[in-house]
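Entry 14. Structure prediction run on the chain below.
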Amino acid sequence: MPIDSSFQAWRVLWLIRSVLVLQRTSIAVQASAAAGILLLLSLADALFLCRPGLHQHLYLVVLFAGGLLVTSRSFKDLHDPVQGTFWLLLPASLPEKTLSRILLTTIVFVAGSMLGYWVFSLLAEGCNWLIFQRRHDLFFPFAPEVLKGTLTYTALQAPFLLGAVTFRRHALSKTVLSLLGLALLLSLAGLLGLRLLFWDQLEGSGLRALLAGPESRLAWMHLTEAGRTVAGIGRIVFWLFMPPACWFLCWMRLKKTSA
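Output returned:
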């Protein structure tokens, strides 16, 4: 039976629900293990330090560590020799399957982890109060650092999702190595550009001379302004272009795999 090529939102929701139902036992076990470790950290901090904002910081650790791990395993069924064919034959189009994984690793994971961590903070601070008669503030999901961390995670998970569909095994470690290699190449390109554009100011007596005298200060200002421009372009690429580009490449890779 051919699959309807038109986009259907209900099929995306069905795919998301199927993953959550099939993985409910694994999700419960892993969440319980994480909660146990976090509870020990909360108890220890309440005993010795009782630092403000503890739960916001711990949540960001959970968000990035757990989220990137989940993202790297999001196409595990596709790479399985037995389940891969079954997954490709599910009655949903490739854009729907791709979107379901994007939503699972962004909106669904973020919302679920926020809700779960808020409930955990209630239980943890109840234990702290009963044992030590002191407690931290409860987890506040709309704190500025949490919202900024959430946006950063949403952008950062995109290349890990691309790695999940590209690499059959060890997707997390291979994606990290790929990103480190890309960062190294960009750094070398930046240093090469610096040498070509500002070598006249940098040669001779070096940076110390660059900081002395009006002409050298002017050259340093140009160098700083160029660095700010590059950093601004980098932020635009990271926030606006990298996530949709990686998601698009993820769909293209999935399309090539299913051919």
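The CA atoms of residues 36 and 88 lie 37 Å apart.
Filed with the rest of this week's runs.
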